[in-house]
Amino acid sequence: MGKYFGTDGFRGEANVDLTVEHAYKVGRFLGWYYGQKKKAAADGGEARCQVVIGKDTRRSSYMFEYSLVAGLTASGADVYLLHVTTTPSVSYVVRTEGFDCGIMISASHNPYYDNGIKVINGKGEKLEESVIEEIESYLDGEKGEIPFALKDAIGRTVDYAAGRNRYIGYLISIATRSFKGKKVALDCANGSASAIAKNVFDALGAETHVINNSPNGLNINTNCGSTHIDVLCRYVKESGCDVGFAYDGDADRCIAVDENGHVVDGDLILYICGKYMKENGSLFHNTVVTTVMSNFGLYKAFDREGISYEKTAVGDKYVYENMAQYGNCLGGEQSGHIIFSKHATTGDGILTSLKVMEVILEKKESLAKLASEVEIFPQVLKNVRVHDKKAAQDDSLVQAEVAKVTEALGGDGRILLRQSGTEPVVRVMVEASSQELCEKYVDQVIDVMRAQGHLL
User: Fold this and answer.
1) Rounded to an integer, what distance in angstroms lies between the CA atom of residue 332 and that of residue 106?
2) C or N terminus of the chain, fewer CB within 10 Å?
């Protein structure tokens, strides 16, 4: 991860960590960078690059959109505006309609006062680290000045809501059956899904009940969506829905709720879809890609079903890199970022909903029944603030305690230490057969860190 860009773009509090000047300069660099690539490929011909931009419903998203547009057009790029839309829709439009790159303005599941800039390359994938390094070098004033476009070389801005509509049509085309007779609840988190999700489910014939789809710029993710799933749990149970789906601010993740109001998280979705895909012969390499934070119970269930799995670092970026490298077709995170590589190059919350609905309809079973096959292990995760993340994690006595816990757990649990990518924090996570054991073993390791003087 770089100075500004983390695993999921440049993110921070609007006009504090991420300013309009940052956005303008990111636009200036991308317009120039892709313009130069276009010019080289055209060998003297038409060299104007084309960039598509989407945004979520935060108040500051409009501000950053205008700043990015100013920078891009000043560098000679033509900019196509999708307006309020989802991150996966930007990825879809970029890769299917020949854009040089895409930008999504969103801080995902963060509170409304944060925002972010996610850059997507021409293949619809997260931007390469090599290009991110060049952007950061320009932001820090290390690359010198970029020339302004002049006269007819100045870029233009185009309303491109049609691109978002094509994405909606694409989602509808993926469904294998009508949803008629199914009562479905959708929590749109007052975010990007508000503009898309209901249209898709209505078109497929569902009795669609939508909550938290009245964005006002300040209520995105506030007590709603995939990070506050209890709201949807209550609604599904009280309204007698067959299933519910909750999205985050930019709708690249999905958490489901069964008919009893119980949470079906990303791990359970991976199991349900992975098992179904194996049964119908569409699970390439018989492998599902997970992150190291997936629940131990998921791996036990995969072992029972004869499904192989990969483990990557936390972040859907790393999940997709593994999928692309080895040709795996299903992967994701416990948090609900699920990637179906046949259909998308990023996590896509609405697409995930459709794939879960496919399993429910094809197998003629309730979501509760499908999810009941996985025994989720109790998990305790504690974040420990330390002086030096690497020194705390690598300390020989800390590692000896981790080894002792690993031996005690045997095949009935696991312990994981992981450094935070953005804070002076080491995360200590234990999964075991009981909550009490989890607490005991997490505290044992933290006690050693404290005794060694690592804690702040």
Assistant:
1) 20
2) C
| CA–CA separation, 14 and 16 (whole Å) | 5
Residue type, position 223, single letter: N
Give kind and range of the element (H or E) at residue 229.
none
pLDDT tier at 45, thresholds 50, 70, 90: low
Q: Residues near 426 by Cβ (< 8 Å), separated by ≥ 6? A: 383, 384, 386, 389, 392, 393, 417, 418, 419, 420, 449
Give 211's strand partners.
187
Q: What is the pLDDT of residues 362-417, one digit of tens each?
A: 999 999 999 999 999 999 999 999 999 999 999 999 999 999 999 999 988 999 99
DSSP of 354-380, one letter per residue? HHHHHHHHHHT--HHHHHTT--PPPEE
266-279 vs 349-363: helix crossing angle, rounded to 10: 50
Active site residue 108: yes
Could you read off the pLDDT of 20-42 as tens digits, one per residue? 999 999 999 999 999 998 888 77
42: CB partners within 8 A, 6+ apart: none
Give the containing element (helix H, strand E) for 241: none
Neighbours of 327 (CB within 10 A): 11
Residue reference for tokens 């983390």:
6
CA atoms within 13 Å, Cβ hemisphere of 359: 24
Tokens coding 398: 């800390």
Mean pLDDT across the chain: 95
* Burial (CB count within 10 angstroms: exposed 0-12, middle 13-18, buried 19+), residue 207: middle
pTM of the model: 0.91
Using CB atoms within 10 Å of the CB of residue 210, give its burial: 0 to 12 exposed, 13 to 18 middle, 19+ buried.
middle
| Helix (H) / strand (E) containing 283 | none
Q: Each residue of 257-267: pLDDT tens digit?
A: 999 999 999 99
SS3 content of the chain, % helix, strand, coil (to 5): 45, 20, 35
Q: Which SS3 state, helix, strand or coil, does residue 418 take?
A: strand
Q: Using an 8 Å Cβ cutoff, are 253 and 109 in contact?
A: yes
Catalytic residue, candidates 108, 194, 226, 335: 108
CB atoms within 10 A of CB 129: 12
Structure tokens at 57: 């419903």
Q: Is residue 338's pLDDT more than 90?
A: yes
